[in-house]
Amino acid sequence: xxxxCLFRDDSYLQTCDARVVGLTDxxxxxxxxxxxxxxxxxxxxxxxALTTSDGARIPIETAIYTDAAKSEIAHVPAPGTxxxxxxDTITAAIDWDRRYARMRMHTALHxxxxxxxxxxxxxxxxxxxxRLDFDIPxxxxxxxxxTAKVAEMIxxxxxxxxxxxxxxxxxxxxxxxxxxxxxxxxxTGRVRLIEIAGLDLQPCGGTHVRxxxxxGAVRITQIEKKGKQNRRVRLALV
Length: 238
Ligand SMILES: [Zn+2]
Hints:
Layout: E1 4-5, H1 6-9, E2 15-23, E3 29-31, E4 33-34, E5 48-52, E6 57-65, E7 73-77, E8 89-94, H2 96-115, E9 120-124, E10 129-135, H3 143-155, E11 160-166, H4 167-172, H5 174-179, E12 190-196, E13 200-203, E14 218-225, E15 230-237
Parallel strand pairs: 1-4
Antiparallel strand pairs: 2-3, 2-8, 3-7, 5-6, 5-8, 6-7, 9-10, 10-15, 11-12, 12-13, 14-15
Helix pairs in contact: 2-3
The structure holds zinc ion.
């Protein structure tokens, strides 16, 4: 059953009431709706807890998609905790400090990809350090110069917005695809676009802050060579 992914419309939601609609073979809990972001796109699933109507607390270690289409989310409980029953009403709450750090980081990676306009070949979002891998044929990247560029974009406090666009709308607007830093996946019917006003536009399913100023200070900590055509750029919140 498809989960109503509340974090897609409001990444600032920390809790919600929900109903248990399934349990996976591994004991993960499927809800009809959730605030838990599920692991994808280099961003880890949220941690937190589910609290049953009689007050029992089920710690959640991560959230994952159960299907390739990313429509259903299962919440993975800590080992040895009790399992709720199908039909139970629970309150879902995420570890907000950790998620908010990831939102700041994730948004900072969009700015990094705007500061370094090369093809991105990989990436990872962590609350302490994040990274993007770029397809860059030659070295010569300067940590301080990139840090300064990203800092300027953060200081501009540009608005971060999301919108859904259908495949048909995309086909009717080839110019839109041209302005995107990452080509959108086609064939799923619709694509979620994240726009950082004047700075970046790309398809993305992750969680972001509302304006770049919320990211705060960041620093490029390391640039590594990963093969002939690849540079790994690491970034940390200061
Ligand atoms: Zn994103």
